Amino acid sequence: MAKVKIDFKALGQVILNYFKEKGEKVGLGVCLAIMLLFGGLGLWGSISAPSPVKNAEEMKKLADSKSQSFRSAEPGESDNPGAENSSTKLAALDKLDPTAYRGRQMFSESEFIDVKRRPPTILTVDDAKVSLARVAVKSYMFNKDGKGLTVIKGGATTGMAAGAGAAGNPAGAGNTATANQKAQAIRLFAAKKNAPKATSEGTKYSDRLIAYLKNLEFSGRKMAETLNVTAEEFEKMKGSHRPAEQALPLRMAIVNASFPYKAQLEEFRNKLKLGSFAEVLGDATASPEDPNIGVNAFRFLGMNVERRKKTADGKWEEWKPLDIRGNYLPFATSTDFRFEPEDPSIADFIVNGLMMPKLRAFDPEHYPKVDDAELSLVKIKSQVEESARKDKDKLKQSKPRTKQDTFDVFSPAAVATGATGEGPGMAPAAFNPIGTVGAGGFVPGSPAMMPGLAQGQDVEPAVHNLVRFIDVDIQPGESYEYRVQIRMGNPNYKRTKDVASPSYADGAELVSEWSKVPIILSLPEEQSCYLIDQRKEDDKSFKGLNSEDSKRQVPMQIHKWFLNTGAATQNLSVGDWAVAERVSVFRGEFVGRQLIAKIPLWIYFFEGFGLLPPKIVKGGSPATKTGDGILVDFSPDRKDRPDFLLVDFEGPEYTHERVKSTGADTKPVVSKVEDANRMIEAYIINPLGQLEVHNIVSDRENAYRKSMLDAYRIRVKKAEDFMRGGGPGGTTPFGS
To answer: Which parts of the chain sit beneath pLDDT 50?
Structure first.
């Protein structure tokens, strides 16, 4: 039989044609088959795999068995050393010369210990409390260019440094007054020239405003003689004139925080290889300004602060650096570094470099009370209470420290002239915290002995100390969040021979991480309204607006904090609350409006608070002359904030129908009844777009409203008494 010859070329062509026609289906079939194969293998593997629980039990049994074997193991015969077959013989020990092996006695003990200094970690605050203060601070009156100062004829009053040269002082006091006057002139004008421009509108006293104030007629009170002088002229006056003051209104966010002071000392002690806290506080390093001068190695240099603001949609913006020093310095210089004294209870917990002082205010009560601010920090309060229990006499102010021609915004000790007191240029009483030394340094390498300590005795530092910074650039109705970095001097600066690495001696400053504790301040609006008829509350003594359409209007009361007021050409600085005691408001009308109100204003050439413009009563005596108020705007100052809007109200006169029926078959009698004593309710939309429901009972009994009204009336009464000639010139309604 003939052998069949296979035509592979034709067969290949057939297969090729088949794949061209059916290739897509063949490929899908192959993929499906592979997928089923791997799926089946995976399923079989999962079914046949041992249980994880069983595996864990077996592994635990194995581990327990091994552990038990190790615990019960004992050396056996196989562990014994083998027979010594080496020809090497150990030399007899008694033939060794011990003097040839001196070893350890050739070195000191310290050479076996790491004594090289390393950079300490800087800690940060661990608790914080932020408070809002609206204050009128005592500022001096500079020209816009900073080259002129308004002064008043006459020596400084009690407590002011320049007063040392006033008439009647003991012999020899004139030289002190001259020196003080010269130092104050240099300090005032130099600081004002170099400081950033203040942003508050209260610093602008226009020529028209000054002329307006001087033309006012007061009740026979003699106006002080004023001059505008340069630095050279002020220096030559030798105490015959004193700087005039003005009210400078400010909003402040005051942040108080606690810092782990003792833990920071321990960190320095460990990283610098020192033996005690006294050695840490006595340690010195080179000054960044002059390497030939030593400064305290353990010293605080202030803070870095960042702030972010909440947007209208409730989200926080990005963090931005906040120039705490640059914003604060203009106000400190314009007040000549006069500050409020600190509460003695917190004296032991204040450290230079971490505590910004509070500017001297006309009314110190406008600052948050210490119980609501510094002592609201639990760790600080517990230390204060513990100190009071241990020693009631311990919490006293120490002697003031002085500095020359410099000012650290993070320290309570301000520029001083060398004298004591709290007038211009005088520092408030400053404090030495527990476990610290005064200004100055020690030569690196010198014995670190603290004054008053015996050999081997160590200081006992406070566990926590206070930190404070003040933000003077805030706006009502906003929410702010802060975070802080603590800055300290590098204790290894320029000490290249003492550090473990040369890089540790570089850089004059060390900083902490950013604080993690929440520091948030939400500023309320500076305007509020209440549903209250003050005429009925005061009965016959009320002297305000009395008339309104009772069916279409309702009486209300407006409270507002004024930064400044008056016409654009006046710009009168206020820095306090005022009250429109009774205003009549229609439905659908905004509550705020322009009204004549009595606003106590500081008048620098009378050195007292008065009311403008004076009301002259014909034929009356000087005692009848007071101020009848000025036109002020009780609407919101921010143009992007709407005013309070009265939507509707019910009462005080309410009419309803009464239906009376005498029987089932009689026609009912309908009569109208008026209820004149019905409780008034009002529906008000606030500046945030929220609906508020006010009723006259709750607003009448509102304790905050009543206290604000009483405080306002007291200030007005004292201003009226001052205008009538009561009280000596230079006093304020607050006795400061």
So the answer is: 158-174, 193-203, 394-405, 413-451, 616-620, 622-624, 728-736
Give, in order, the Cα–Cα distances in Å from 226 to each of 167, 243, 305, 429, 605: 19, 9, 41, 31, 7
Q: How far apart are CA 1 and CA 11, in angstroms?
A: 23
Question: In 3-state terms, what secondary structure has residue 707?
Answer: helix
Percent of the residues in the chain that have a pLDDT greater than 90, as a whole number: 32
Q: Tell me the two tokens of residue 19.
A: 């794949």
pLDDT (0 to 100) of residue 67:
82
Question: Domain residues of the chain, as ranges?
Answer: 120-136+245-450+464-524, 142-243, 527-723
Dist CA 277 CA 281 (whole Å)? 6
**646: nearest Cα among 692, 691, 588:** 588
Q: Give the separation between CA 126 and CA 106, rounded to whole angstroms.
A: 49
Backbone angles phi, psi at 226, to 5 degrees: -120, 155
Which three-class secondary structure string do you get for 647-697? EEEECCCEEEEEEECCCCCCCCEEEEEEECCCCCEEEEECCCCCEEEEEHH
Mind listing the pLDDT tens digit for each residue in 47-80?
877 777 888 888 888 888 888 877 777 777 777 7
- Cβ distance 347 to 431 under 8 Å? yes
Could you report the per-residue pLDDT of 279-337, keeping only the tens digit for each?
Answer: 999 999 988 888 888 899 999 999 999 999 999 888 999 999 999 998 998 888 888 88
Angle between the N-to-C axes of helices 173-194 and 324-334, in degrees from 0 to 180, rounded to the nearest 10 = 140
In the chain, what's the furthest Cα-to-Cα distance? Answer: 159
CB environment 593-626: b (16+ within 10 A), e (fewer): eebebbbbbbbbbbbbbbbbebeeeeeeeeeebb
Model confidence pLDDT, tens digit, residues 250-276: 999 999 999 999 999 999 999 999 989
Give the distance from CA 225 to its chain's centroid: 40
* Rounded CA separation 136/573 (Å): 9
